[in-house]
Design brief:
binds phosphoenolpyruvate; alpha/beta; about 325 residues; about 20% strand; single chain; 10 helices; binds manganese (II) ion
């Protein structure tokens, strides 16, 4: 980090600032010019409050020259992280197709969808048991019963399962869940992230509706700083002024994230577009952009789905999407 001091700063003021920084275990390299003094801050500057430093009367500007995320940073960990669930690997050249309904609705529904997506070649089964809904009157998920049904589907198909956690109090219910999802709305629920960091479960962390890529990485850092490095990042569309789609899929997040971090990156074209007709092309585009996996919603009867039917593929549509994505993977790797 570099701090430029204003013209006219006295040596005493500079010394005072340098001592303040040294108290935070930051080494300071002072470069005195004719007009201005530049301080080079060396050490773990992630603890420095950049806004506070910038607001000091003697400081003209502050610039970060290194990223505030460390453990998620590719600079300190050049090799790709590969997350393993059962026989499935994600990252480092390994690709996973995650498919299943928005929410688990009944035993028949989850078994039917799980069997169909498995037959088409899905690697992991998704299904929401705890649903974060905008309206408190909308279907909130089957909760513990939903997890029980997902586990039945896992037993029936052999597919590892992923499902969303909303509150750390329900963590015990996730003992046999293979990947815990943190949804877009909880991306900055820092208490939840820290508690998940104390587990050794793979975590799929979705990007928030209005969060930057750096904020996503800082949230991953919250989990990693507690010891859990098994993280998969997920781009699921961000909110923009566009209304033709539910969100705007930021596909450039895939190569940007691959550059900044060693963590695997998957794309969710279902929540990104909100329309099943757009999912095949966006899934194909995500694969072409180098995503390490794709997560899509599939329902045996989308028009009757309790949640997100408009963006859910039928099993037959999923079969085609999966084929297309695998063909693209062959071409690009
Ligand atoms: C989901 O995947 O079920 C979900 C609610 O997604 P998001 O958090 O991206 O809205
Ligand atoms: Mn959904």
């Amino acid at each position: 980090m570099i701090a430029v001091l204003k013209h006219g700063t006295t040596p005493q003021q500079t010394e005072h600032l340098v001592n303040w920084l040294k108290n935070m275990n930051i080494d300071v390299h002072i470069s005195e010019g004719k007009e201005i003094t530049v301080l080079g801050l060396i050490g773990d500057t992630s603890r420095v409050d950049i806004e506070l430093l910038n607001s000091l009367e003697i400081v003209s500007s502050v610039k970060r020259v290194s990223e505030p995320f460390k453990q998620a940073n590719r600079k300190f960990h050049p090799n790709d992280t590969v997350v393993e669930v059962g026989n499935v690997r994600i990252g480092g050249g390994h690709f996973a197709m995650i498919a299943g309904p928005c929410s688990v609705e009944s035993m028949d529904q989850i078994i039917e969808v799980a069997t169909a997506v498995k037959e088409s070649g899905a690697d992991i089964l998704r299904g929401g048991a705890f649903k974060p809904r905008t309206s408190p009157y909308a279907f909130q998920g089957l909760k513990d019963e939903g997890i029980r049904l997902l586990l039945e589907a896992k037993k029936a198909t052999g597919l590892p399962i992923i499902t969303e956690i909303m509150n750390i109090r329900s963590l015990d219910l996730f003992n046999d869940v293979d990947i815990i999802q943190v949804g877009a709305r909880n991306m900055q629920n820092f208490d939840l992230l820290q508690e998940l960091g104390k587990t050794n479960k793979p975590i799929l962390l979705k990007r928030g509706l209005a969060n930057t890529i750096q904020e996503l990485l800082m949230s991953a850092e919250y989990i990693m700083s507690e010891g859990n490095e098994n993280i998969i990042l997920c781009e699921r569309g961000i909110r923009t002024y566009e209304t033709c789609t539910r969100n705007t899929l930021d596909l450039s997040a895939v190569p940007v994230l691959h550059d900044l971090t060693h963590l695997p990156v998957v794309v969710d074209p279902s929540h990104a577009t909100g329309r099943s007709a757009l999912v095949p092309s966006m899934a194909a585009a995500a694969a072409a952009a180098g995503a390490d996996g794709i997560m899509v919603e599939v329902h045996n009867n989308p028009s009757c789905a309790f949640c997100d039917g408009a963006q859910s593929l039928t099993p037959a549509q999923f079969d085609e999407v999966n084929r297309r994505v695998r063909r693209i993977r062959e071409v690009i790797v």
